[in-house]
Specification:
By secondary structure, this protein is α/β, with parallel strands linked by helices. It folds into three domains: 78 residues, Arc Repressor Mutant, subunit A, CATH 1.10.10.10; 100 residues, D-Maltodextrin-Binding Protein, domain 2; 90 residues, D-Maltodextrin-Binding Protein, domain 2, CATH 3.40.190.10. It is 44% helix and 21% strand. The protein has ten helices and twelve strands. A five-stranded mixed beta sheet has the order 4-3-5-12-6, sandwiched between helices. A hairpin with a 4-residue loop joins strand 1 and strand 2. The relative contact order is 0.14.
Length: 285
């Protein structure tokens, strides 16, 4: 009788979904060599080649494409059976900073849910300082935020570059205060923008303050103000205007993952999210 090892199947699914042995190993908290060995043993056991690997590409073989849906179903049944041994509800509260969360977040969470449907994720979107405070008080199990001040803990997911963005027809007279649209005073990106202008001796005035990121985006897109945005999240139709108007360079920062999760499946799910986040940024770069 043919029987399947759950961990070997999990390695196969991870390689197939991430299309990389390296990223799969990172997501599983393993090594590339260990992932390769487990996949090879699975292929030998079922007598089929599941993954085609070249120096430039990793993809499903014809047999792998036939097996992938059954493999996912097998893992879901296995994980649900294991979860049934525990009375506790598996969940974690995840915070994502508003200046970090882009349109890709929905896709990333969908991938995470597909990987582990038994895990309940509660998402809170706010500014980095609020989320870090909630994390430190134990209200969040994990938080993906912009690095604040000199705090050095957490796992770096990647750099975050900022710029001054406005519409191409944004008008500003030299010598007049630069018109800003910004979130509430507690927002770290707002503080970064105003501090950068103050250090450069450039006068500024806030013509839109608060009301959420949609209000800031609307004000900038309407040509009424400028604002600091992450270069990857600037509103469509806007351009970087620092050179045009002599605005100072905005210091770069880092996106950091903080987590207190310890159980294997939750940590694995979080690694999936972190790996997918890095993968999306690399694709968008």
């Amino acid at each position: 009788m043919l029987w399947l090892d759950a961990e070997a199947v999990r390695n196969f699914v991870m390689v197939a979904e991430l299309q990389s042995f390296t990223r799969a190993a990172d997501a599983l908290g393993s090594t590339q060599a260990a992932v390769s060995v487990k996949l090879k043993r699975l292929e030998e056991r079922i007598g089929r080649k599941l993954i085609e690997r070249t120096p430039r590409r990793v993809r499903l073989s014809a047999d792998g494409a036939l097996f992938i849906d059954s493999a996912r179903a097998f893992l879901t049944a296995h994980d649900n059976a294991v979860a049934g041994l525990s009375c506790g509800i598996r969940r974690f509260a995840l915070g994502i900073a508003g200046h970090v969360a882009g349109p890709e977040v929905t896709t990333l969470l969908a991938r995470l849910n597909k990987h582990d449907p038994a895990l309940t994720i509660e998402v809170q979107v706010d500014n980095s300082s609020v989320l870090l405070d909630a994390f430190d008080r134990g209200k969040l199990d994990a938080a993906i935020v912009r690095r604040e001040d000199d705090r050095r803990d957490g796992e770096v997911l990647g750099p975050e570059h900022f710029g001054w963005f406005a519409t191409p027809d944004f008008h500003h007279r030299q010598g007049e205060p630069i018109r800003l649209a910004a979130l509430a005073p507690a927002c770290g990106v707002r503080d970064l923008a105003t501090r950068t202008l103050n250090d450069a001796g450039i006068p500024w005035v806030e013509v839109f303050l608060g009301g959420g990121s949609s209000v800031v985006t609307a004000a900038v897109s309407a040509g009424l103000a400028t604002a600091v945005f992450s270069s990857r999240l600037a509103p469509p139709g806007t351009v970087e205007i620092s050179r045009k108007f002599g605005l100072p360079e905005v210091p770069s920062s880092e996106i950091v993952l903080h987590s207190t999760l310890t159980d294997r499946r939750s940590r694995e799910a979080l690694r999936i999210l972190a790996c997918a986040f890095r993968e999306h940024r690399a694709t968008a770069a």
